[in-house]
Amino acid sequence: MNIIILGPQASGKGTQAKLLSEGLGLFYFESGNFLREKAERDPRIDEIINKRGELLPDEETFNLVRDYLKEKVPTLDNFILDGYPRSLKQYQLLIDWLKEEGKKIDLAILLNISDQEAVRRLSARVVCEKCGSVYNLITNPPPGGKCQCGGNLTQRPDDRPEAIEKRLQTYHATTAPLIEVLKKDGILVEVDGERPIAVISDDLLKIVAGHGE
Ligand code: AMP
What are residue 94's DSSP bridge partners? Predict the structure, then answer.
C-alpha cells in the first residue's frame, strides 16, 4: 500500500503519518526534514526554503525525492509520503514515474484544519537544536522548558508569524488543484484534523484497512 498524506502546516500529518507507518510497517518519508538536511549543505536551497519560505521548484524536488525513494525502497511498495507531493505537477511527476515502474499511489489522505488553528499551533511549535524533537508550547510542552536530551529549544525560522502566513497561502494555492485531481482519481479521503491524535489515528487505520478490502 502506497499512501500520500496532505494537509496544511501543523495539521498533524507528520504525527499521523508516523503512527500509520509504525502500525502498518510502511517506509516513512518526510519532505520538510529531508530538504532541511539538504539546505544545511546547499546555501541555495537554504535561501529558498528557510530564508524565503518558498517551495523548491517541482522538477528539482521530484528528482531528489525519486532518487531517495529508489535508494531506500527499491521495491517502491509500502511507503507513506508526508509533504510530497505538494502541487499537481509534483503529483503528476510522481505517478508517471511510478507507472513506468509498474506501481501506483493507492490512497491520498487529506487532514483538514482551519487556517486559524494552523497559526495557533505553528506559533507555539519549538524544535530541539540538538536532536530535532518537536514540542508544542500549548499542546505538548517540554518538561522543565528543555528538551529531554538537554538541548535548547528554538522556533524554526519558517514558523515565525510573517513566514507562517506566506506558507499557508502557498499551501492553499498549490494544493487546491492537486486535491481536485485526487478526488477525480478516486483516491482521496478527507479527515477532520482538529480531533484528538488517537481518535484520528484510529480513524486512519480503519480507512486504510477498508481500502485494502
Ligand atoms: P515543511 O516542514 O513540510 O513545512 O517543509 C519545510 C519547507 O521545505 C517548505 O516550506 C518548503 O520550502 C520545503 N518543501 C517541503 N516539501 C516540499 C515539496 N514537496 N516541494 C517543494 N518544497 C518543499
Answer: none
CATH number at residue 104: 3.40.50.300
**Within a domain: 140:** no
Ligand 1 centre from 174 Cα, in Å? 12
Residue 50 Cα: closest atom of ligand 1: 12
Count: domains in the chain: 1
The pTM score is 0.87
Give the structural domain span for 64. Answer: 3-115+175-211
**If the chain, 213 residues long, is cut into consecutive pieces of 10 residues, what is the mean pLDDT of each piece?**
94 94 96 95 94 90 98 98 96 98 98 93 91 87 91 89 86 93 97 96 94 70
111-141 core/surface letters (b: 16 or more CB in 10 A; e: else)? bebeeeebbebbbbbbbbeeeeeebbeeeee
User: Is residue 169 in some structural domain?
Assistant: no
